């Protein structure tokens, strides 16, 4: 691959966008349909971030309801149909995210999304949030034969964005994101406001930020190492 642009690759749920309200809201529709008590946002928030199937399994288990594989598959299908129709009822970009994207894009960075959310839903959400046009590539589950934490998912996302893999940074909120970046040989910046019940610093990302206003300096602090890596590989 011909290297051209520095690239920032973002996770979506819990990193760029606070989607817990609509994800838990969709889960609650299924729970109530089954005669179970809906979850409070604070209870369900740690269940978000690993995909619809895991969210359903965690939510039903919390309410003491066992699910067999066939029933789980049916619930996943119902979840995705309802969620697509309500994908941005309450979801929003985290504070400072849009300004940060615009600053990096103006500075010549390519921007990309690498999420385990289905690609179609990721694109729809970013369109609803008026952010899709910032990204050179939006990749999700179904874009490639594999998904995070397989490092090939990150490599292929960088390639789709016409980015330089030697000057790439992964921005995420979870162990999965950090493990993906580490396996790909890519530095990682973790946000500490995402969806993990373990403090994200425990997973040893290269940098941790608490607001998108801090992202520029976090990436700048990695630039010297990134430039050196590019020089050594050239």
UniProtKB/TrEMBL annotation:
Cellular component GO terms, alphabetical: cytosol
Gene3D superfamilies: HAD superfamily/HAD-like, Putative phosphatase, domain 2
Any one Gene Ontology BP term: glycolate biosynthetic process
E.C. number(s) listed in UniProt: 3.1.3.18
Positions contributing to Mg(2+) binding: 11, 13, 173
Catalytic reaction annotation: 2-phosphoglycolate + H2O = glycolate + phosphate
Superkingdom as given in the UniProt entry: Bacteria
Co-factor(s): Mg(2+)
Keywords assigned by UniProt, alphabetized: Carbohydrate metabolism, Hydrolase, Magnesium, Metal-binding
Residues at the catalytic site: 11 (nucleophile)
Record's function text: Specifically catalyzes the dephosphorylation of 2-phosphoglycolate. Is involved in the dissimilation of the intracellular 2-phosphoglycolate formed during the DNA repair of 3'-phosphoglycolate ends, a major class of DNA lesions induced by oxidative stress.
Family, similarity comment: Belongs to the HAD-like hydrolase superfamily. CbbY/CbbZ/Gph/YieH family.
Name this polypeptide is given: Phosphoglycolate phosphatase
Organism: Methylocystis hirsuta
Lineage: Bacteria, Pseudomonadati, Pseudomonadota, Alphaproteobacteria, Hyphomicrobiales
